[in-house]
What does this fold into?
Amino acid sequence: MQTVNIHSAKTNLSRLVDRAANGEPFIIAKAGKPLVKVVPIDQPTTAQMRRVALWQVSFPSPAISTAWVTMRSNSCSA
It folds into this structure.
């Protein structure tokens, strides 16, 4: 993980933020002492991704459910 001093971080902030957003976190230090770690906000873990995938399979989208109910209602009323 890259460590940059605060002056360099201010000078290269756009480039550093782009790299962090792409999965390369970095540390900002002042006088050689680490102060903060910059990481991307939305970096879901594998477990979180599995839970989302399971939820999507368990609960189909409302558009699909509505279409099925509409088709079912039309066939029953005929």
Observations:
- The helical segments are 6-11, 13-21, 46-58, 62-77.
- The first strand starts at residue 2 and ends at 5.
